[in-house]
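Example 252.
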Amino acid sequence: MSCKGIALVTGAAQGIGRAIALRLADNGFDVAVNDIAVSAELQSLVEEIQQRGRASSIHAADVSQDAQVREMIEAVVQNHGGLDVMVANAGVVGPSGMVIADVTVEEWDRVMNINARGTFLSYKYAGLQMVKQGRGGRIIGASSLTGKQGHNAQVTYSASKFAVRGLTQAAAIEFGSHGITVNAYAPGVIETPMFFGLLPGPEMRDGLKAQIPLKTFGVPTDIADFVSFIASKESKFITGQTISINGGLFFD
Ligand code: NAD
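Predicted structure in complex with nicotinamide-adenine-dinucleotide:
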């Protein structure tokens, strides 16, 4: 299959990011992968992408750090010759059950810096590169169900995921005339290491599952299926949207 373009996925060592990286490789993209540090998981992901006949490379960086994100995009362009799809997937949750009274300034800054500032920096440097290339592009962010409806046990996380939606809409307006679309996914409950950390016990999981109309949790490939489409040429008239993927747990 000829190369469909060059993609970069942040937070790709595990969970949703890993599934997205593999799906984009299956779709014919060369896929550069990022996480906070080089790891065996990231190295095995690169091998899996290469086994699919696609080029890949590791770019360890902290997405909340301006210079690191700028240099990461520069390195991807140098390695692969450009950037067509940016998936700003990296994110963190806070400890579950923290209400406003419990949230310290340090905890607020930690989660906001990775989820909101990290997405802003990814959008910014990817968007500037795509504008410079002049061949359009796809920018995709990670919001959440809690970015659509506030959650009192995830105060900072919820605020950070609302920020991703606002940023996605503003960036869609700014980059639209360059043929660059900007959209985000808003997952409900997806079985990943993040999810298993938040809902460790079977009782909590069963209670939550019962509330989901489709009576199942999502899996990382459910998000990758969406990204597969929104990264494609066929999604060209969709921009500024944050799409819920949640088994019906919340309706827009
Ligand atoms: P995960 O915790 O399993 O994986 C996230 C990855 O991001 C990890 O590999 C982690 O090392 C990386 N990361 C964290 N901080 C980083 C940083 N500063 N720089 C670079 N990489 C960093 O999470 P997941 O469940 O796969 O979630 C992926 C995205 O989807 C996140 O943005 C998350 O908030 C969002 N999301 C997940 C769910 C869910 O149910 N799993 C629901 C809604 C939204």
